[in-house]
Amino acid sequence: MPKVTKKQRVIDYFTKSPLATPKSVSEKFGMAMPTVYTLRKQALASVHTPPPADEPVVEQGWLDEEEQANKQQVGGDHYKNMGVEPWDVIDTWPIEQRIGAYRAGALKYLMRMGTKDADGLEIAKSKHYLQKLLEILEEENGG
To answer: What is the pLDDT of residues 79-103, one digit of tens each?
Structure first.
């Protein structure tokens, strides 16, 4: 009988318990958080099959790799200097939660326009979230 690796046990655990938090799984299996997030993404991808799309949400290949949302940051470099960026974590969530997170981010920056940063910067941050939302919708539809 083949030996089951710790990584496979974590994947199996997330498959059986998709609502388990990465922190609790990290503590349970004694594994680093970035690894747990990666394994969670793998596990949830295997249990979530998106419905077939009649047509792509956006034209395939609409964005060069350098223009992708993850390659940029609006308003500083604090996220780019992290080992694991917030978007890396969000991208491990089920698609419905990812869509909600990116929609909420875009809305947040539009709603606070005129109260914190310059209007143009707030709009650029909202656009950045919308760009990321388009990318995940394209990915979900086979892009």
So the answer is: 556 567 788 888 889 989 999 999 9
